[in-house]
Amino acid sequence: MISRKEYQQKWYFKNRVRLLEKAKRYRSENPALIKEWRLRNRSYLKRYRRRYFSEYCLRENYKEQRKISQFRKYFREYRRQWKINNPEKYRQSSKAWAGLNRVKLNFKHKYYARKRKGLIGVIQRVYEDNIKQYGTLTCYLCLKSVGFGEDNLEHKMPISRGGDNEYANLAIAHKSCNCKKHNKTEEEYRKLLKEE
């Protein structure tokens, strides 16, 4: 699983030579534009240099950081232009990135899928019925009241052992009780408590 930042850095180090040549070519072709920009933004450059040297010059990996920070400015503009000029390629590269990070993205899809299926409504019912049954929010494993932020949604039959997200299989428990129960069934957990 690669973050977008790592993906971009890998891409940069692969294409570093080509990009630096392109930047050099631009500087040689447009010296007047660069000079004009520097004159207009003199105070900004002063602030930037001061901040840059205070942050990076003291570090061991100064040269590496310098290369990266010099490139970042250029890369943002280059990427923006590239998106506009190559919409189809951008779509394909986004798909490729999504393929590499499927696990990270799946979490979002699963959440919205559950929401569509109405699991959120089921969870609300579980909480409401627990309060009706015991008078206050109560752990079904230790039968003690659950404080604010200590509650967890518990699967009576763990999903890893064939349980599901149906109303009958859900209950409220303390976080500590839930962790202690782990992937045991309710009967196994109660046996363990008796042995202790």
Mean pLDDT: 81
The succession of helices and strands, N to C, reads HHHHHHHHEEHH
Task: Tally the structural domains.
Answer: 2
User: Helicity level, as a percent range?
Assistant: 55-70%
By DSSP (H or I, 4+ residues per run), the number of helices equals: 10
Please state the CA-atom Rg, rounded to the nearest Å: 28 Å
Largest sheet: 2 strands, antiparallel
Strand content: 5-15%
Residue ranges: pLDDT <50 for 5 or more in a row? none
How many β-strand stretches? 2
What does this structure look like?
By secondary structure, the protein is mainly alpha-helical. It folds into two domains: 4-85, no CATH class; 118-195, DNA Binding (I), subunit A (Orthogonal Bundle). It has helices spanning 4-14, 16-29, 31-40, 42-56, 62-85, 87-100, 102-117, 119-134, 175-181, 186-195; strands at residues 151-155, 170-174. The mean pLDDT is 81.
